[in-house]
Design goal:
single chain, about 575 residues, alpha+beta, Immunoglobulin-like, Neutral Protease, domain 2, 3 domains, five-stranded mixed β-sheet, 13 helices, about 25% helix
């Protein structure tokens, strides 16, 4: 009865599609393009309790039809409901608490759906909005580096479809609150796909429904998903599954959905799930979504951290580290991005810096110090130092991710990772683990069932460091996060003494200790007030920071980067050869 009623409702959406959109089409507004930033005052009055989302995927016309039933609680009196939804998905009808609204009750000229409520909603009360909509959603140009739909086909011509929305946001295909703290408490998904296709998605599979016309509806439920973490994936998938016995005593379901004909490669990737999971559980803490699943799906784009259904598109590439970096990176976001979510995109480094650092940290866990050093060195050469990582004000995702829009760009990855590497050397392994656990779980003793996803900020992270160590490291974060340039370590050598002085951007004292190797002896200079000195026997060989524990300016790296960029520019400008 319920299945047939939902199918009928979806079929009622009036929609025609004469031509298929090309990449980058249909065009989107500046409002849709924006994800995060200052929160609309009406949206700030909302707590997003639940969403029930029905999607009908129509590959022949590259169309989505949807019914979204959204449950909100009012933090303050409401007379208007504002949700984000791309205007390329026209609304057919809206009902509030079961009452159908007249067409003039809502507008959506720029991608923010504004609904005049039929009655005022007092503080603490819930309201339910049922929105029927559909159209041809925006197609990504170069997913996942830009957002949108990815319509593709498998080698044998079957539909292969995926969504990716981190940059532009969830409003590309469902009505939502498009900012990091807009997470719904629970989302139920119903995804109707053509005959012979599967639709792996977020959370727990509630079941599948065989429809009379041969299509299938896949029903899923997920708790507290990141707004951009909801994902549709459609294809003729085959499935690998298993169960992981966690070191915390719980049993975690494992799933990988892959394309036909790839079983051997798929099994090799699936074999990486358990050791990677063991690494994160041993070094960080419990897998956050063990009562749902570890899920990975092969996609026609590179990858993305969609909660419990991470997108994988690395073509099973091999690497000298011995593990698939793309799988490992996206999986790390289950902790840093999905469990710990930045309260504002300005704190984006909490996602990417930590997850990037977990790659060499994993290499160290697997193989030791040599692998760790090689991987850290590769990251060091990618740090640009063009903008501060943190601005201290609300920013959109693009304002952080894109250098052209004034953001730090890739430094949230590589400089963030090296800052964490330096911090770990400064405060020690145990303190670093405790700080990480507080940031991820909000507590030092996480166990399955005693924590829920949380929001974090840079300021809170600094407070966690102070709580664990008993010391104020504001000077450390001010330089590495709030200044673009790196601190410079100035060396002065006399026949009998080496003197070191930190020259830090902003002119603040920078008392970061530095190791010095004199002959076969390693000494840790405290660098009080940014100065340190050590006696050096005549003729002794001296190496400053021999284990590369400190992120600091390097003239050699700057010269290399300038040469590298010049070579790339020269190659790009050279005429093509016949």
């Amino acid at each position: 009865m319920i299945v047939s009623r939902v199918a009928a409702l979806l079929a009622c959406v009036s929609l025609t599609a004469a031509t298929l959109p090309r990449k980058g089409e249909p065009p989107i507004t500046a409002q849709t393009q924006k994800s995060g930033g200052p929160i609309d005052p009406d949206q700030a009055k909302l707590t997003f309790a639940a969403a029930d989302l029905s999607f009908e995927v129509l590959p022949k016309t590259q169309t989505l039809r949807g019914i979204a039933t959204l449950d909100f609680a009012a933090r303050a009196p409401l007379d208007r409901l504002v949700v984000d939804l791309d205007r390329n998905l026209p609304v057919d009808s809206i009902a509030i608490d079961g009452t159908a609204l007249p067409r003039d009750s809502w507008t959506n000229p720029q991608g923010q759906l504004r609904i005049t409520l039929p009655h005022a909603v007092p503080t603490g009360r819930h309201l339910t909005a049922r929105i029927v909509y559909g159209g041809q959603p925006h197609v990504a140009v170069n997913a996942p580096w830009d957002s949108g739909m990815v319509w593709s086909t498998t080698p044998d011509g079957a539909t292969w479809f995926a969504t990716t929305a981190e940059g532009i946001g969830c409003d590309l295909f469902w009505p939502c609150l498009d900012f990091p703290t807009g997470k719904p408490g629970v989302v139920t998904l119903h995804i109707t796909v053509p005959q012979g296709l599967k639709a792996p998605s977020n959370g727990v599979l509630l079941g599948t429904d065989a429809l009379p016309d041969g299509r299938t509806r896949w029903n899923w439920r997920i708790k507290r998903p990141a707004t951009y973490g909801i994902a549709l994936n459609v294809g003729p998938y085959e499935e690998l599954s298993g169960v992981y016995r966690s070191r915390y005593g719980n049993m975690i379901p494992l799933f990988y959905w892959y394309l036909p004909g790839e079983e051997a490669q798929a099994r090799a990737l699936f074999a990486e799930f358990a050791p990677t999971l063991d690494f994160y559980e041993s070094q960080v803490g419990p897998y956050p979504f063990g009562d749902e699943k570890v899920g990975v799906v092969e996609t026609p784009h590179k990858g993305m951290e969609h909660q419990t259904i991470n997108a994988y598109g690395n073509a099973y590439a091999k690497a000298p580290e011995g593990f698939d970096w793309l799988f490992q990176h996206e999986f790390g976001h289950e902790w840093f991005g999905n469990q710990l979510t930045a309260a504002d995109w300005d704190d984006y480094w909490l996602h990417e810096g930590y997850t990037e650092y977990m790659q060499p940290f994993y290499g160290r866990w697997r193989e030791g110090a040599a692998r760790y050093a090689v991987m850290m060195d590769d990251q060091r050469n990618r740090i640009a130092n063009l903008r501060p990582i943190v601005s201290g004000k609300p920013r959109t995702e693009e304002q952080v991710y894109e250098v052209a829009k004034g953001g730090p760009g890739q430094d949230i990855y590589y400089k963030g990772a090296w800052m964490l590497h330096t911090l770990r050397g400064l405060i020690g392994d145990r303190a670093f683990r405790d700080v990480t656990r507080l940031a991820v779980y909000g507590r030092l003793d996480p166990r399955p069932g005693n924590f829920v996803p949380r929001y974090g900020t840079t300021d809170e992270y600094e407070r966690f460091v102070q709580r664990v160590t008993g010391k104020d490291y504001g000077w450390f974060f001010d330089v590495y996060l709030r200044q673009a340039a790196l601190p410079d370590l100035i060396e002065t050598r006399t026949p009998a003494r080496l003197t070191l002085r930190w020259d830090a951007p902003g002119g603040r004292p920078f008392p970061l200790p530095v190791e010095v190797q004199v002959g076969q002896r390693i000494v840790r200079l405290p660098m009080t007030a940014g100065l340190g000195s050590i006696a050096v026997p005549r003729g002794a060989h001296v190496v400053v920071d021999p284990a590369a524990r400190v992120l600091r300016r390097s003239i050699a790296v700057e010269q290399y980067q300038a040469w590298r960029d010049a070579q790339a520019h020269k190659k790009a400008a050279a005429p093509a050869k016949d």
